[in-house]
Write a structure and sequence with these properties.
Oligomer: single chain
Strand content: 25-35%
InterPro entries: AAA+_ATPase, ABC_transporter-like_ATP-bd, Motility-assoc_ABC_GldA, P-loop_NTPase
Keywords: ATP-binding, Nucleotide-binding, Transport
Helix content: 25-40%
CATH topology of the largest domain: Rossmann fold
Family: Belongs to the ABC transporter superfamily.
Distance between the termini: 34 Å
Largest sheet: 6 strands, mixed
Order of helices and strands: EEEHEEHEHHHEHEHEEHEEEHEH
Number of domains: 2
CATH architecture of the largest domain: 3-Layer(aba) Sandwich
Number of strands: 14
Strand order of the largest sheet: 6-7-8-3-9-10
Shape: elongated
GO molecular function, one term: ATP hydrolysis activity
CATH superfamily of the largest domain: P-loop containing nucleotide triphosphate hydrolases
Structural class: alpha/beta
Pfam families: ABC_tran
Number of helices: 10
Length: 305
């Protein structure tokens, strides 16, 4: 296993930011780490990258503990924090040379790695410019190059597209996709479209706890709960639905607007149409909620303590 996060817990004063967090990522896998604001995503990413110590638990990178062997583990991890820290007065190539030196890369080996990440991150035309003169999109590219310069096996990206305009966002996503072909990549974000476009596996965290962990395809499988929305011109009555065998749960959204969670969607659809005919209702719509990552996310993170 390329990355193992084991029973992570972290307190900030009396607040428990992480509560027994566990997840794994296999070699070559792109894992989406999702959660609402304040769920503990950035705290988990900082610990996984070795930038913050947990109060409990451990993180293993290729079997090496970031707690017990931080120097050895750091060589295998590349990290782009949410707030990308860069020296704005340094030139791009100068900055990457400085970072390479921190990992004891010198001479031809350092030059070769710097050339490689400059090309991979599309920084050829910017390498002799000051970082402070670059757009946010190009600064993110520099941050990615920094995370890659020592050729790590695991890359941790925390909100890498935050604050980018649509064109910059597309460019960074393409860059992430190209990086993910050879690396294990952990992508922390709250943008569902990014995860659906880039990730094979998903971990969802809420209030410091993991509430889902599976392959994206499994989370969105047809075996998951099906929801129908029924809208009629007339007022609907809950008792009309009480004997429906295909119905699991009913929620009133309006006088003529019901949400129906199906125990058996084919049976429920038939029963609804029979009801419409029997009561001579004017049917405005009967639609099935599309099972996408956003609906799953809302379902799992909408509960409050």
């Amino acid at each position: 296993m390329a990355l193992e996060v084991k029973e992570l817990s972290k307190y900030y004063g009396q607040q428990k930011a992480l509560d027994g967090v566990n997840f794994t990522a296999e070699k070559g896998q792109v894992l989406g780490f999702l959660g609402p604001n304040g769920a503990g995503k950035s705290t988990a990413m900082k610990i996984a990258a070795g930038y913050l110590l947990p109060d409990e638990g451990d993180v293993l990178v290729n079997g090496v503990s970031v707690i017990d062997h931080p120097h050895e583990a750091s060589k295998m991890i590349g990290y782009l924090p949410e707030h990308n820290p860069l020296y704005l007065e340094m030139y791009v190539r100068e900055f990457l040379s400085f970072v390479a030196g921190l990992y004891q890369l010198k001479g031809r080996k350092a030059a070769s790695r710097i050339d490689g990440v400059i090309e991979a991150c599309g920084l050829g035309g910017e390498q002799h410019k000051k970082i402070g003169a670059l757009s946010k999109g190009y600064r993110q590219r520099v941050g990615l190059a920094k995370a890659l310069v020592h050729d790590p096996e695991v890359i941790v990206l925390d909100e890498p597209t935050s604050g980018l305009d649509p064109n910059q966002l597309v460019d960074i996503r393409k860059l992430i996709m190209s990086i993910s072909k050879e690396k294990t990549l952990i992508l922390s974000t709250h943008v569902m479209q990014e995860v659906e476009a880039l990730c094979e596996k998903v971990v969802i965290i809420h209030q410091g706890k993991v509430v889902a962990q599976d392959l994206l395809a499994n989370l969105k499988s047809d075996e998951a709960e099906t929801v129908l929305y029924l809208e009629t011109q007339e007022r609907l009555k809950e008792e009309w639905f009480a004997a429906m065998q295909g119905l699991d749960k009913l929620r009133v959204l309006g006088d003529g607007y019901f949400q129906l969670k199906a125990a058996d969607v084919s049976v429920l659809r038939k029963e609804i149409m029979e009801l419409v005919s029997e009561k001579s209702l004017s049917l405005l719509s009967l639609r099935q909620e599309q099972r996408n990552l956003e609906s799953i996310f809302r379902q799992l993170t909408s509960t409050k303590e």
